[in-house]
Amino acid sequence: MNGLFAGLDVSTQSCKLVVIDLAVGSTLHVASVNSDADLTHFGTHEGVIPDLGEGVSESDPHMWVEAVDMLLGRLKAAPDVDQGQVRCISVSGQQHGLVALDSEGNLTRPYSKLWNDFSTSEECRLLTERVGGVGRMIEEVGNTQRTGYTAPKILHMLRHGPECYAETATLFLVHNFINWYLTGGPRGGIAVMEPGDTSGMALWSPVTRDWSQSVIDAIDPNLRDKLPPVEPSDRSIGTVASHIADNHGLSPNCAIDAGSGDNMYGAVGTGNFTPGIVTISLGTSGTAYTCMDQPFVDPAGEIACFCDSTGNYLPLLCVTNMANGYDAVLEAFEMTHAEFDVVIAQTAPGNDGRVLIPWYVGERTPDLPRAAPIYFGFGVDDFGKERLSRAVLEGHVLNLYSGFSRLPVEPKVIHLTGGLSQSSSWCQMIADVFEVETVAVQGEGAALGAAIHAAWVWLQEHGAEVSLAEVADPFVILDEATRKRPIDENLEVYRVQKRLFRSFTDRARGLESEDPFEVRAELLRVCD
Predict the structure, then answer these.
(1) What would the pLDDT profile of 39-93 be if each residue is shown by its tens digit?
(2) Residue boundaries of the structural domains of the chain
(3) pTM for the model
(4) pLDDT at 1
């Protein structure tokens, strides 16, 4: 096996490029563009246009195109890479974002609503009512309607910008839009979707692998005309456009594979190919997902039912709140990451009965877009550095676990990725709460997964009988220095604290639960 293969990851705050060399089994080139710092003329803060209103999170799709061009320009200038030898490019994109184009390839709506846009609560309610309720919606698309998903974004566009919707000829997700650009854009770009990212629209069913006519009719019976065809994930869709190849020194034969969502490629980039391996991504949001050979449909709709990028399935939990509470504590107490670890080492598991429900900016799982943080068991003198630091760490991990526990999965190991995976405190907390060994994965996650996928697709299309695991093996590197195992004496504390967290969050949502005051009393006895 030989050749160079590239993966692009178009995320909320940045765009990354990874080039791998199959002949030597190593990563040859890594580059990134930060939207705020490198593309200042778009005026973003953390990749998002500021001050658009409460719950609104949007970006200009042209920014992503400029970022891709900038990265390809840097690849051309790299002295140690022959960009003309790149045989295939694959694009990973932040999921759920909506890009609308007219018949000439112009944006009909200047900004794209992103995965963390919470302004479509009313549209979620309307869609669910029109289809016949939550149960019926889950039957139709394997998921409930969430503010992050794409279907309510389309209805929002129709309700609040009908003239833009009327002018729209094509609706894309982020990675499909970049694929269209790379294959020619207005000059004959290829409009196609694939099952992984499309299953996150809540408009197409991962179970039936077809569009839901009921949900389409609940938006617009003619919507289907604006949706590209859904083709398999494990094939290329065409080759790079000649003018892009000429500009960046790429081969005109360089293939563009189908691409997928960032979670699907995060799975590939972290070696999550077989049941029993769970990936947890610790970034702006937190996600947990695993590979399954059959779709998992959560009766409550809290676990997302997604396809992956290989023909299998990727049940996924996403919590909106992850790094935000941690970053706020670091800023408030002027701590470094290392100083935070020291503080955690000086505090006791269970925090003496204090629990933080970290719903700082609403929450996706559970589906509470108007949620607010809750501090339970805190006295007036408990808001110092030590108590709050441990509360934030435990609260975020407990919030993630509470959703994950709905999955019928007993993980053998958890692979960690994202910025917080380098923190000893976070790695150990996840090992203790999930009661399983954890280890961080080196590399660029979704961008690396995209490059590996590009190689796998190209090899298959050129006659090689090779598994994705074989292609990925040299590139998925576990950081053994971060490996953590559950600490036996912490397990009883966290088993009670998990019950406390669940009892209180259930009560806050009006659900039946254990008495949180009684469970807290039990936790205090265990912590003593």
Answers:
(1) 999 999 989 999 999 889 999 999 999 999 999 999 999 998 999 999 999 999 9
(2) 4-264, 323-406+487-527
(3) 0.91
(4) 63
Pick the CATH number of 323-406+487-527 from 3.30.420.40, 3.90.190.20, 1.10.10.10, 3.30.300.30: 3.30.420.40
Domain 4-264 = CATH 3.30.450.20: no
Same fold, 4-264 and 323-406+487-527: yes
CB 416 within 8 Å of CB 446? no
Residues 6+ apart with CB under 8 A from 86: 4, 5, 6, 19, 75, 250, 251, 254
Helix, strand or coil for residue 335? Answer: coil
What average pLDDT is seen over the chain?
Answer: 95
Question: CA–CA separation, 171 vs 220, rounded Å?
Answer: 13
Please write the tens of the pLDDT for every residue from 450-491: 999 999 999 999 999 999 999 999 999 999 999 999 999 999
> How far is residue 173's CA from residue 98's CA, in Å, rounded to a whole number?
5
Cα Dmax for the chain: 70
Q: H/E element holding 62? A: helix 61-77
- Please give the structure tokens belonging to residue 478: 């576990």
Sole residue written with tokens 């990675």: 175
Per DSSP, helices labelled H in 168-297 are 174-182, 195-198, 213-219, 242-248, 262-269
Helix, strand, or coil here: 19? Answer: strand
